[in-house]
Specification:
heterodimer, A: 108 residues, alpha/beta, Immunoglobulin-like, four-stranded mixed β-sheet, 2 helices, 8 strands, B: 306 residues, Purple Acid Phosphatase, chain A, domain 2, six-stranded mixed β-sheet, 6 helices, 13 strands
């Protein structure tokens, strides 16, 4: 309880700092513990989005509309795709289709 | 461990988990009953060795759970080759490779060519078709099925059906056969005598063991409706790297061990990934399955590497 109170007491500057880090990380999605993290990402058109697998089990990044598809990513392997067109792009891991994610691309 | 095997008295499938590497199946009163590969290696068991199931060899895997999957596959093959009576068929229930890479398939084919257990039949696992089309898999194993992946054949009076449930994933979903394959299955079974023993093999379990881990096949119920009229149906799967079985009427479901690495029990931990176990335990958790034919009945047994 003490810890929570302490955290909430941080000034607004701290909140803004965290916000800017999250924005900078938007183009990188970590695959860990059988999850895409974050699962829901919004980026401006023209962004290169990169996925990095941090699980010992391989995963894939497969668009449900056929727009992009990675090879099987082993641990530490990365996959990038450039999103030029605004829209919603749902994807799954084809090895573990319970794993789902979505990229929302907005016009600059 | 193996001397309590009396196929004539068994009314249902049983499976003995050996400290070793596989499963051998025999057919007994239309029902699979277990015997051990260890037994097959040392004495002449009842019945005819029908076939051997090997699964989830995951060639290309090199992580902590087993840095030498080629080595454990070689050990498995040596164990089978040492059997006095070897079956005339081997069925690989998928995940031949870990990442669908050409070099992995090449090494797997090279290693499997040393197996002295008859003709090799395969179905793909999801690790074999991560490119979506299974280009490398079908280049090597597509011929038997005219590049569909699913096919059937007869051997020793038993009708064998290989099915593919790893190429039609939907988000959040289980494995699936799809309408075309189910229509083919219905047609393949129509007109066959209900007394024909049926063996179905597919990578993912054909009953739902754990939905959230994808341990099941979403449209398997339709397949089962075509299979239920048969007096002896044996469904062999892999995917989960451990033995799980169920008997439902005349249908026996069985999953085989991997020769590469174990996975956690359903729902334990973060997900269905490699399970690292203390040194010395690994080979007790890897293995194969054997199937024998005893007076028209199938009997199966699992054997571990150690």
């Amino acid at each position: 309880m003490h810890r929570v109170t302490h955290f909430l007491a941080y000034p607004l500057a701290m909140f803004l700092f965290i916000g800017s880090v999250a924005a900078a990380d938007n183009s990188t999605i970590v695959i860990k513990k059988f999850m895409f993290n974050p699962m829901d990402v919004t980026v401006p058109a023209g962004t290169d989005v990169t996925w990095e697998n941090q699980d010992g089990e391989p995963h894939t990044v497969v668009s449900l509309t056929g727009d992009f598809r990675s090879q099987a990513l082993d641990e530490k392997d990365k996959f990038s795709h450039r999103f030029d067109q605004p829209g919603s792009y749902k994807y799954i891991c084809s090895i573990h289709p319970k794993m789902v994610g979505i990229i929302t691309v907005v016009a600059r | 461990m193996t001397d309590d095997f009396h196929p004539s008295r068994r009314g249902a499938l049983q499976c003995l988990a050996f400290g070793g590497a596989g499963t051998l199946f025999t057919l007994s009163s239309g029902i699979l009953t277990p015997i051990g590969l260890a037994q097959a290696a040392t004495e002449k068991p009842a019945g005819l060795p029908l076939f051997l199931q090997i699964s989830d060899t995951h060639i290309g895997f090199n992580k902590e759970a087993n840095p030498d999957v080629a080595g454990t596959l070689k050990e498995t093959i040596a164990l089978v080759n040492a059997m006095k009576m070897r079956p005339a068929l081997t069925i690989h229930t998928g995940d031949v490779t870990h990442l669908s890479r050409a070099a992995e398939f090449d090494l797997a084919s090279q290693l499997m060519s040393d197996l002295k257990a008859g003709e090799l039949h395969t179905v793909p696992g999801e690790h074999d078709v991560t490119d979506g089309t299974g280009t490398e898999y079908f280049a090597r194993f597509g011929k038997a099925s005219d590049n569909r992946g699913y096919y059937s054949f007869d051997h020793q009076g038993v009708h064998f059906i290989g099915l593919v449930n790893v190429m039609q994933f939907k988000p959040g979903g289980l494995g699936a056969f799809g309408a075309d394959q189910l229509a083919w299955l219905k047609d393949d079974l129509s007109g066959r005598s209900g007394s024909t023993p049926i063996v179905v093999f597919a990578h993912m379990p054909m009953w739902t063991i754990l939905e959230s881990w994808g341990w099941g096949t979403g449209d398997s119920e339709e397949a089962l409706t075509y299979l239920r009229r048969f007096g002896s149906v044996t469904i062999l799967n892999g995917h989960i790297h451990q033995i799980v079985q169920k008997v439902e009427g005349n249908i026996t479901f069985h999953t085989a061990r991997s020769t590469a690495y174990p996975q956690p029990e359903a729902g334990v931990g973060d997900g269905p990934g490699p399970l690292t176990v203390p040194a010395g335990q690994l080979k007790h958790m890897l293995g194969i399955t054997g199937i024998r034919l005893v007076r028209h009945h199938l009997s199966l047994s699992d054997t571990a590497l150690a």
